[in-house]
Amino acid sequence: MKALLGGKGANLAEMTNIGLPVPPGLTITTEACSAYYENGGKLPEAIMNEVKEYLEVVEKQAGKKFGDLENPLLVSVRSGASISMPGMMDTVLNLGLNEETVVSVAKNTNNERFAYDAYRRFIQMFSDVVLEIPKHEFEDILTEQKKEQGVDFDQELSVDSLKALIQKYKKLVLDESGKPFPSDPLEQLSLAIDAVFRSWNNDRAIIYRNLNKISHDIGTAVNVQSMVFGNMGNDSGTGVAFTRNPSTGENLLYGEFLTNAQGEDVVAGIRTPRPISELKDEMPEIYKQFTEIANMLEQKYQDMQDIEFTIERGRLYMLQTRNGKRTAQASVRVAYEMANEGLITKEQAIMMVEPDQLNQLLHRQIDPNAELNVIAKGLPASPGAASGHVVFDSDEAEFLGKGGKKVLLVRTETTPDDIHGIIVSQGILTSRGGMTSHAAVVARGMGKPCVCGCESLVVDYNKKEITVNNYKIKEGDVVSIDGATGRVILGEVPMKDPEMAEEYINILKWADEFKKLTVRANADTPEDARKARMFGATGIGLVRTEHMFMGQDRLPHVQKMILAETVDERKDALEIILPMQKEDFYGILKEMEGFPVTIRLLDPPLHEFLPNLEDLLVETTTLKLTGADPEKLEEKMTLLKKAKNLHEFNPMLGHRGCRLGITYNEIYEMQIRAIHMANAELTQEGIKVYPEIEIPLTVDASEMRFFKAMIERVAQEVMEESGVNIEYKIGTMIEMPRAVLVADELAELCDFFSFGTNDLTQTTFGFSRDDSQGKFLQHYIEMKLLKEDPFIAIDRRGVGKMMLLAVEGGRRTKPDLEIGICGEHGGEPSSVEFCHEIGLNFVSCSPYRVPIARLAAARAAINDKKN
């Protein structure tokens, strides 16, 4: 019932049902969140009436009454969406305290200090979350109060100091809001529920949902739960634990706790907590009970659990369990080991690893042979290494990061409001907080390196500098971190490529057992092809031949060919390029022995191989004005004249692709000959190759008929010259709407289709990719006019329908027609899933995204089987 109760509410209900010690409470459903926004951002009266009704049930279970002066019930108010969003929405603890109930709590617990500490925490949290008074204003007052009493730590404050602090907090609330702090517990509850629903659309939550592709429409539930207290003395405490290590995946209970503390102290990084293993010595019975419950929950949910707990006066309470956020390394290891333990199946293991996580395993590490100036050491909170310019402010990090500068975000501790700075940073370094602090959890989820709790760092925001062991590091200085060891290193460090672990290799082998789609790679050189095979590609889905024309050894000949005034002059230049092209194709085909290689003939307009028009205008004007080097001026004027002739107002829809091959068919003929010659030479050497010649940008069967005749004629000539029979396929890219509409006619002349979804997206939407992404597309996404960037994930409702139309048309003519997709959509998980759904044969993407596509293809097949 996660969709209705949220993840937290559903799991609390599950734990209650199986008899675990869970404080009683109630859940306000996600439907109420929808009603809240439909009601103009106001809590409908009917909902509060239901809350009051069911609060009575909670009161009976807890044996306390909300707002009662004898035995008051205190509650927490927490968010809980169906998809975990740690730290992105708001929480209020100790709700129900006022000047009267605090006296009763002090009397009932026989602990006046505890009661007033809980009250001051409540005022601070409620004012920040509900009344939106900045937290730092309360922190400043707290710091002054500690100075006044002459103590260093919050827990050292006397009862009198806490009482004075509460009055100062209340004065701040009155000054800032113009109203006294609310004392009626029901009013407090209503305002807190309102604030949690409101936090669904706060900036950090929206950024997090956009980053993780979570729908903005699912809403959050609200959990109102009886408070249990970890700050009632040294027989009390609070903690967070994972049933396995969320950084490495090791099957070992991993977590932290604090005695005499509340949960916020652990996750907010206010105090640096102790390892969970030390609880065994301090409270052995509690530790034994907790480990038994942790094992039970992992068995029940068949996944690594992230558990929050509180110990109140020697009694254990479970506050939350959820599937734990983890690094890519941990995700793969947990899935692999759980399958080998027999806890889950291979299919479940594959579904446990998110394809995009595999990207993180390809991150570089610090070279172990490098000489390092290690200046400090903190907690290894999220693996990987990063170097960057030190930045202390998330807004500044975002500004510099978006400008292309590599930054390292340094904070005393991060809060959910730092999310935008974390996204653009290479890594995160904090002086406080533990392995389960906000910075650690968010960094692990994003695959960013993080070092937390580096207590030797003194961070001075005003001076914008760090002091550590006699070093002073200013904003803008370069520092490196190693998230696997916790090391902080001065300067930039040399990195090395990662090594693939056994579990990674085996998970991908399992994926290959289930997937139906073949995964190819886009590669333009033998080196790229070699890398593609290393990552598991079983073919090349796109060789961009224009990249070969850019080589410095051939660009002058390409330009000579472009400048040629006659066909013969152009052919002379092409004769020089021919053997170079043959060697290009020979190298790639040989590297991919036994696998298909799709080679796209020249696609971009010819002006792309000439110097920039504006640069030529400046250069020729300068040469004219200075009178220097008349010979060079003549050469540049010739280039300028040709560049002007080739200039187009809309080159994307202009003289490119097969249109170029029609008007300058000698260019395409040279490339076709080079492919056939390389094929023949390799066949003679006994190497089995499968070239597929691809014609770009076709819109009519007459174009394909023209090129098919050319390909077959040149093949016949090469076979006669070499005395070797060669195999090859002929196909086209489907990237124009008209090609989609005449796919049935094109299929008569083709062995295969390959969707060019970049151009198909541009022409379906009428969006220029570069212009739209830079100018307005982000506004469409922010305003929810589009769910996501259609150049990143296939737009199923529009472009997807075009693709399906082409598949149906092509296979109506030729049922065994091979159809695939090339371009980066081929490595984006949701796009790969769509390609599986519409029956494509292959996807093709950059070599580094091949593992992602393999896993995504397997997940699509497993989901298909389930459905």
What's the helix and strand layout?
Layout: H1 2-17, E1 25-28, H2 30-38, H3 45-62, E2 65-66, E3 72-73, E4 75-81, E5 91-95, H4 101-109, H5 112-129, H6 135-149, H7 159-177, H8 185-199, H9 203-212, E6 220-226, E7 237-242, E8 254-259, H10 263-267, E9 274-275, H11 279-282, H12 284-301, E10 305-312, E11 315-323, H13 328-340, H14 346-352, H15 358-361, E12 365-366, E13 374-377, E14 379-382, E15 385-391, H16 394-402, E16 407-411, H17 419-424, E17 427-430, H18 438-446, E18 450-452, E19 458-460, E20 465-468, E21 471-474, E22 478-482, E23 487-490, E24 495-496, H19 502-514, E25 518-522, H20 526-534, E26 540-544, H21 545-549, H22 555-563, H23 567-591, E27 596-600, H24 613-626, H25 630-646, H26 658-663, H27 665-684, E28 690-695, H28 701-722, E29 729-734, H29 737-741, H30 743-747, E30 752-756, H31 757-765, H32 769-775, H33 777-782, H34 799-813, E31 818-822, H35 829-837, E32 842-845, H36 850-866
Parallel strand pairs: 2-3, 15-16, 16-17, 17-18, 25-26, 25-32, 26-27, 27-28, 28-29, 29-30, 30-31, 31-32
Antiparallel strand pairs: 1-6, 4-5, 4-6, 7-8, 7-10, 8-9, 10-11, 12-24, 13-23, 14-18, 15-22, 19-20, 20-21, 22-23
